[in-house]
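CORE FACILITY INTAKE
Project code: CF-77B
Contact: R.S. (postdoc)
Sample description: multi-component assembly, three entities in total
Requested service: structural model of the whole complex
Turnaround: standard
Below are the sequence entries exactly as provided by the requester. Do not edit them.
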Amino acid sequence: MLELSNLTLAEGRVAHLDDVTVSFRKGRLTTLLGRTGAGKTTLMRAIAGLAEPDRGRIALDGKDWSRLAPWQRPVAMVTQQFINYPHLSVLDNVAFPLVRRKVPQDKAHEAARDMLGRVGLGTMIDRRPSQLSGGQQQRVAIARALVKKAPVVLLDEPFVNLDYKLREGLREELVDLLKAERETIVIYASTDPREALQMGDDVILMAEGRAIQSGEPQNVYARPGTTRAAEVVSDPPINLIGMEVSGGQLRLDRLADLPAHALGRDLPAGRYTLGLRAHSIRQGGDLSARVSLTEVSGSETVTHLQAAGQSLVMLERTVTNHALGTIITLSLDLGDALVFDAQGRLVEKELVHG
Amino acid sequence: MRTLYLALKYLAVLLWSAFVIFPFLWMISTSFKTANAVTGGAKWLPWLQFEPSLSGWQSLFGGVGGINILKPYANSAIVTLSGSAIALVLGTLAAYGLSRFTFKAGPLKNGDITFFFISQRIMPPIVLAIPFFLMLRFLGLLDTLPGLILIYVAMLMPIAVWVMVDFFNSVPRGLDEMAWMDGCTPVTTFLRVILPNALPGLVVAAMFCLIFGWNDFFFAFTMTFTEVQLLPVSIVALNSSVTPWWSLSAAAIVSVAPLAVLAFVVERFLSRGGLAGAVR
Amino acid sequence: MYRQKYIFLLPGLLVLVAIILFPLLFTIRVSFSSWDVYNPGLNWIGGENYARLWEDARYWEALTRLSVLTVGTVLLQYTLGFALALLVWRDIIARRFFRVLFLVPMMTTPVVMSVIWRTIFHESLGPLNPILDAIGIGAQPWLSQAGHAFAAVMIVEVWQWTPFMFLLLLAGLLSLPNEPFLAARIDGAGPIRTFLSVTFPMMGAISVGAILIRLIEASKLMETVYVLTSGGPGTSTETTSYYIYIRGMRDFQIGYSASLSLTYLIVMSVALTLIAKALIRLMVKDRT
């Protein structure tokens, strides 16, 4: 187990890491999910020894890493940029980490050739990295990271600079490759909630340099602990709507007044925030809203709407083209709505469903 | 209008070309003259205006009225090449350190240390001449090759640092960090990963070192007397009242020729855009 | 963790400190002594040398002359170098040939070429005066009259170092992005307007760099003068470096020349810093 405790790293007044305590388990892929600037890259660089934390401890199986230089840490890393050694052939690139670790040349080449075959580059071993496409270059980088069988593998948004189609394909290949590594701790940074939820065995949500929630993806998605976590884990963005509960009435700010039983549970009177996922807003109903943006992606349509000064996002599982500026009617499905208290913490449903 | 513009353009290029070539043509022509051809007023064309002779060229190897140029030539080559090589090694190492790691000495940081290196180029040679002179005398290295090499290292290292800091700053740090992840210490990273990829920068730096080293006259002149003579000094020594212009020209040609060839190398780098970074 | 970093920096730094910094500090001490050929050694005479140089008209004249010469030649070199770079930048026949040719002078040894120039400027035997005669200008007393000798030094400096300016400016031109020029073409701007509103502004930072490097190098001027005119006729082409050389290395007034050279260094550093600041304000639009 890789344990980080109280990791803090600030540059001037900006806290890149703020008291992060998390752990990563062997044989599992953990995704770090957060927006750009949330501290994911800094966290990985701290694990690799490339960034020096001001405070805190990093330990693998109880062994402290604080005094280890980057080249002494058993870590492999793939970054957003496609970084390979320009002066070496693809084969020598992948063999390089082994040769540096005193593996005999022929053994190193054998392992490298094997790994290159597994990433689909078996026929290109004599080329230079500059003669490869972006996707192939990143495959070389991945092969180089995996060939040394490091107990910790860091993948920092490895596919973000590739086009969409390639990204999907490579992600699946990578998941297959990693299945073979049963003892490896794999950490994968991502800004894309869907990617994180599909790939990860575990997920850690990050925002403003803090680890705000961790757990199994389905669990984290279904029950984000705070409004912030709900924002990070939802794609398209979750609708957060101010809500007042009093005397058997739910008043959604500027939108609607509903009977209390619409939520299917009892709430004490007070201020709340309602978290409504985009797929819970449907077309047709008694709310009206103006279309301000429509994006079609695959077979889904995301529509941004304005209703009485409140922005809403609606997801439809069809391809629909709403003309800009038209008024459409909506209804809200509160069936799986999330409720947060005045401090933004999740108000759990009674555990009726088990 | 367009034709006039083009005509002016080519006229300008040809005029400047004539200005550039003028001294070279004169020097080549003169190197084949004898006393008669020189004293009768300026002449350019061999056979038509004067009877060409090889005496100027023969005098380079100890002929009449000339000098033996082999010794100074070898001296210049030794001092320039070893001075450049040492300056390049020390300068490249320092530039890599300054580009990749943070150093602090009291209030002084990386930028100040880099400036200290490069600012040595601002120092007029004459300011350093006296302390250099006294230092070499103290070390017993006055009028010796090692003494000159030492001075050339100090003179050329700032150039190497200047070019190489700029070059290393353009190499992504991610490359170094990848090497560290792959088990290289900073020293092996430098040797195995950075150096093999630094050739373009090294060529530019080496070129500038060679140019400034080979073309130096001042230190070669002030730090030597009789034992060691470098090429420019021996040529200027010919520049006396009874100047044998033919020997002078022949010597000038052989002294200038090797570096003039470097212009081709520079142009190649220029056309490939390899020099742009060195300016900013 | 990164203790190896000193392996990179220290060798070069220590060598430079040993070879340059210590001697320089020593020079400061020497400038307060009367070390000369009769009394070699470090005595203490206070600021006497500095009082003497304050009164030394020849020194200040040389410094003024050097300033005029430096600024004059560098401006000429910049104008010519820029023009040449523009000429061989784009569509021209035998572009690479002319580029190589224009670079050659900076590769040649200045003193050696100065020796050749001296024969060219020779009033009766040199090739220059016959040519001037033929085109109706008439023969000139190149090296025997003050004004002419000054011009001769400038011609040689321009021949030798315009290529350096040309090199840096052409490298700059070749690194410019293409889009602004396309935009100017679409706007229908002619070559002159394109130059004034696109090329020149984008070359601001590079121009400042190139001019400063040349100013620094030109302010050290002495070798050309030594060979071409020996500072003469009289002291009419004597530069600061050359005057200090005469006092120090020929008259062997070590103490006095130390004070001269330190004053020179300070004056040059201050002047160059001020010029650098002014140029950057004037010519660099986006200070990044």
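Facility notes:
- Chain C has a mean pLDDT of 89.
- DSSP finds 13 helices and no strands in chain C.
Invoice: internal transfer
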